[in-house]
Every structure is written in C-alpha cells, then in structure tokens.
Amino acid sequence: MMNILLVGCNGKMGTTIARICSERNDISISCGLDVTKKDNMPFPIYTNEKQIPVSISIDAVIDFSHPSGVIQTANFCKRRKSPLVYATTGLDKESNKLLDELSDFVPVFRSANMSLGVNLLIKLCKNAASFLKEDFDIEIVEKHHNQKIDAPSGTALKIADEINSTLDNEMNYVYDRHNTRNKRSKKEIGMHSIRGGNIVGEHDVIFAGLDETITISHGAYSKDVFAQGALRAALYIKDKTAGMYSMDDML
Questions:
Q1: Which of 46, 49, 112, 211 lies 20 to 30 A from 162 at CA?
Q2: CATH assignment of the domain containing 187
C-alpha cells in the first residue's frame, strides 16, 4: 500500500482524489494539507507542513492546491525526501525555479494536465505541426468552468510550447486581437479562453489552411481523469531517483 500526503485535500481536485483512493486497495491518503481545516475526511488534516508528525508514513506527495503554497510543499518534500507530483498550474518564474532545484534532491513529476488523453493530444499536435508547418495557421481555444482563475490554461500554454518547440521556437503567442488591426502573421499561435458554467476542461487546436481546417480536440467530462493520472504518476515516481519527470517519461 502506497501512502500519500494530499496537498489541497479540501479543494475540488483534492476531494476527488480522496474519493478515488477510498475505492482502491493499492494507494491511500495518510494525511492532508490545506489552508482550511475540515473534519469531513477519513484522515488527519494539517494547515502547516511542520505540523505533520514524522510518525505518519508518506511515500509521495500530490499537490493540487494553489501556486502560493509551493514553498511549503517544496520544503516538506526536501526535508522528508518525499517524491512530489505537482499538478498545480499558474506558477511564476521563481516558483518554477524552486521546483527545478527541488528535483536535485527528490523525484518531481510535473504536468500541466494529468489526463492521458490531453498528453496524447499534445503528441498529435506536434506531429501535425511538423507536417503542416507554415501552410496552416494555428489557434488554440480552451474552455473551463467559471471558477478557474488563470487564463490561458496551463494546458493551453503547454500545447503551444510543445508545438512551438517543433517549429524551432519561432512562434509568438497572441492572446488578444481586439486591440490591434493587423493581418495575422504566419509566426503566431493564437490562444483564446472561455470561462463558463461547470465545464471541466476542453481544448481545441485548430490548424487552418487554404480551403480546409483540421481540429484536434480533447474534452474532460469529470475531474476523475485528472485524479487517476495523478495517482498513476505517484506510483510511477515512488522509487525513482531524484530528477524532473513528466508524462512523456511515464507514457
């Protein structure tokens, strides 16, 4: 049985992971860490990582919380030498550097999206971009629920970055077109964000050419797909050496 510290356990993703773990016999939540302490979970919850007793067995940490908590998570993992699955998006440059430095001491698994389907979409988009090149314009449309704070989504940025790497990093990202009156450049990747209702997550990557359009799409219909991916990642890095890992490594 693998024991997990779940950071952000009282959030939407945290409660989803806790529910799924309760239905499995290979992985369990030994304790949770959250800024809000509620007594609605079958495991102890702490509001500060220093409160977590050494006696609690923790084989890995899963963080689905908020970028502001990255320092606390990194400190715990470094001190306890715990592998980390970090699934929170919206980090700034300093926070990304902090996780890079942490990977010198423990295995760190990062993905902008824990869905296996999204990561397959990224591979398909890279293949399409390498074949279509400048003959097709690329636009990314992402849709999420009305409670999501960051825009564009971390997944949309990841898709754009991977496509851009295929095109020798020559593309510029355009997030908003209403302030300019210029023709579209061939060196652009347009990104558009939609927020509404309870949309879990949808991403459409449009390759628009002369007289034809190719759209590669992925839709998530429940948060379970992200939870299952995070748990799979935790099992994957449990016995890995220190370093940075991603979905590409696991797939």
A1: 211
A2: 3.30.360.10
